[in-house]
Amino acid sequence: MTSKNLFLKLQREDMKRRVWSVALSMLSFFLLYTVVCAMKVSNYAYRIKTMGEYDPYVKEWVYNDIIKFIGPANELVIIITIICAVVCGLSGFFYLHSKKKVDLFHSIPVKRENLFAVTYLNGLLIYIVPYLISLLVCFIILAANKYMVMEVFLTGLRAFGVNVLYYTLMY
Length: 171
What we know:
- This protein has about 170 residues and is mainly α.
- It is about 80% helix and about 0% strand.
- Helix 3 runs parallel beside helix 7 (about 150-170).
- The longest helix has about 35 residues, at about 20-50.
């Protein structure tokens, strides 16, 4: 007899084994979005102060740069997506490379479909949750400095959807 919350217990145990990939994902998205966004906002403030507050070309350049940074064409996010998909795939199904570990995991009285679903869902969560949190923090930084407009928000959401789709396809 299996318990009702077996899936959550298996998920928690799988996350304990993969805590290093969670930390790596959180660190990479924190450095990419939060730190780089804060540095860019500081650069924008300096550029607007030196080039003139009322110059329309400076503001247009700032918004175009923000959209390029948050948009789906950001090369650093693409690289992190590829690396994270490979790392999460390898760390999730590492036990398949050892006969003893395969015997151990398959001796657990759980359907193979449930084991696969737990590992696959955790791999998705390892990428999606840090990405979403960092993107929201970046939006907060932009909003606090009055650079947040609807176009930036929609571009960020579109980039999130595209990158999650790419991650899912590679994972």
